[in-house]
Amino acid sequence: MSEKARENRLRRRAKRLGLWLKKSRAKQWSLNNRMGYTLIDPYSNTCVWGPEFNESLTNIENDLDNYEAKLRGQKGGEETK
């Protein structure tokens, strides 16, 4: 899967979870902008992960997995095995 296709897939997944996936538009690396990705909660206008655009797509995917599991746990209460 190409990098752009993976990015778009994660962008759609984040949107389904109520988040925005943003990519850095910086042309040069800096301490406050590391040319990566960040996840934003649009309702509270806060950064959920990657406040300095320091997340890779792999990290974003893991963060979305954890966030989705957390939401599932809150909605369903205790899961039974």
Outline the structure in words:
The protein has 81 residues and is of the alpha+beta class. The chain has one domain. It has 2 helices and 3 strands. It has helices at residues 3-16, 57-76, and strands at 20-23, 37-41, 46-49. A 3-stranded antiparallel sheet has the order 1-2-3. Helix 1 (3-16) packs parallel to helix 2.
In short:
This protein is of the alpha+beta class and 81 residues long. It has helices at residues 3-16, 57-76, and strands at 20-23, 37-41, 46-49. It has one domain (3-75).
Shape: globular
* Low-pLDDT sequence parts: none
Output mean pLDDT: 85
| Count of individual beta strands | 3
Strand and helix order:
HEEEH
- Terminus-to-terminus distance: 34 Å
Category by helix and strand content: alpha+beta
Gyration radius, rounded: 14 Å
Helical amount: 40-55%
Largest beta sheet: strand ordering = 1-2-3
**Main β-sheet: number of strands, strand sense, barrel status?**
3 strands, antiparallel
- What's the structural domain tally? 1
How large is the count of helical segments? 2
β-sheet strand percentage: 15-25%
